[in-house]
Amino acid sequence: MSTVDVSAALDALEALAANASTSSSGPLNRLLNEHFTVARERILAGSPPKQVITELQTNLARAKKDVEKGLKAWYSALGNVGKSVDKSFPPNLSAISAAYDDPPLFVDAAASKALDNIVLDSLGRRGLWDAVEAFEEETDLHYNSEKRVLSEELYRIVHDIESGNLSSAIQWTNENKDFLAAPPHPSSLPYHLHRAVFLSFTDRMKALEYARAHLFAYMSTQPVLALVTSCLYSGADESPYANDPAPLASMFITDYCRRHGWAREDPLEVVVDLGSRGGALNAIEKARRVMGERLGNVRKWEELPMEVPLPPNRRYHSVFVCPVSKEQATESNPPTMLSCGHVVARESLTRMVKSGKRSAKCPYCPQETALTSAQRLYF
Predict the structure, then answer these.
(1) Where is the CTLH domain (predicted)?
(2) Contacts of 251 (CB under 8 A, 6+ apart)
(3) Tens digits of per-residue pLDDT, 38-70?
(4) Confidence of residue 1 (pLDDT cuts 50, 70, 90)
(5) What is the Cα–Cα distance from 308 to 47, expressed in whole angstroms?
(6) 111-170, pLDDT tens digit by residue?
């Protein structure tokens, strides 16, 4: 269970509120606005009051059942929210905090200021300027004015992209084209922006003119011809690109942050995401309780005693396990590529070299590699 499940439970609760059939106000409003009004008009028109009141009582009983049915769904949805919260967040946070408070966390002035700076930077990255100003007043910190201008520009352009207006994003890529085209990782953002504009045209001739002006420059690296010929399809729904939108906003944020040397993701968000949704806090706390005496103070652990499964987008360091020794590579025992292209750990290669020889036979193929020709790999 994660905070994603909490959001899903809250969404289900909001759906109940928006649905007239499950909202308690729906049957009551219908009873007041329809049945009472009709009953009053019928009595004023001369209908027998006893018959009208009998029918009104029937409608009232039906409305009562509808309300009870809606409340039953509400109670169930509220219960799911509570269960999701309990499973997503440890119920004994105070006890956990005390266990890690040795020595106390963020008591040092430098550590406390560093934490405040991280929170302030996170608020600025999200464009929450009212919160930034309030935080500045409470902490005497100040958000960098130049960074604020850049952050406002970032969110303005992202808002334009999400609104379907790509002109500001294209202008930014033109102003930074040298950086975006520079090796070792040239960006494909300019192509995908022009690609989106090209696909937005309904007039084929205008689309082809736009392609000649803006897309043909990417023919060596992108499938421009396949894209251009897609306009030959008779209908937009038949085009292979009809339901293939590129994540332009996400791509722009990545390149914008890279251009200005910012972390691609908010560091505070990453930490909270790993601790709660990623389950790292629960895993560490379980290890502390089960093996606390053998492992010592949790604050002195140099590495986690267990593996914490993380989603692919949260794996920031590649891990290489030597196929010979079955050990994980380290800085002192790095992965090493042999002449044949196979990779083993440096210590395994050293052990494979027989006494008196300067080369080792690959454990996977007959080719031999000299120690001097083996190359260290960086992942």
Answers:
(1) 152-209
(2) 187, 188, 189, 192
(3) 888 888 888 888 888 888 788 778 777 777 776
(4) very low
(5) 74
(6) 888 889 989 999 988 888 899 999 999 888 899 889 999 999 998 999 999 888 999 999
In angstroms, the CA 138 to CA 148 distance is 19
SS3 state of residue 328: strand
| Angle at 48 (CA atoms; ends 42, 49), nearest 5 degrees | 75
CB 267 within 8 A of CB 254: no
Burial 162-191 (b: 16+ CB within 10 A, else e): eeeebebbbebbeebeeebeeeeeebbbbb
Q: Which of 259, 248, 261, 257 is nearest to 170 (CA)?
A: 248
Dist. CA 119–CA 268, nearest whole Å: 7
Residue found under tokens 């043909």: 216
Q: How far is CA 312 from CA 274, 277, 278, 315, in A?
A: 12, 13, 11, 5
**Which of 359, 315, 187 is closest to 256 using CA atoms?**
187
Per-residue confidence band for 180, with pLDDT thresholds at 50, 70 and 90: very high
